[in-house]
Amino acid sequence: MSDEPTPGEMVRRLEDRLADVRDDIQQLGRRLDEKVDQRIYDLRHEALSGRVSTLETLREKDNEKLVATRRWLIGAVVVPLIGIFLPVIILLARGTG
Length: 97
Description:
By secondary structure, the protein is mainly alpha-helical. It is built from two helices and no strands. It is rod-shaped and about 125 Å long.
């Protein structure tokens, strides 16, 4: 008969288990509160995809502007300078030879 728990010990064990179950339920509730709803996730994902595509478009436009600027620089500055200095260099080379 000494192996059997007393009614008080049974109540204490039951209260401990009940407290454990309550803690588990509270933890589950907190985890569910932190979980993002699928619709919200989808909306955020769509918004992020839109931002990324916008940034990619802007990057392509900036790249095109950079190429256009380089072409302008070559056409407006480098070619005329070569046109001016090349004949001078040729004349100086002929004059000394």
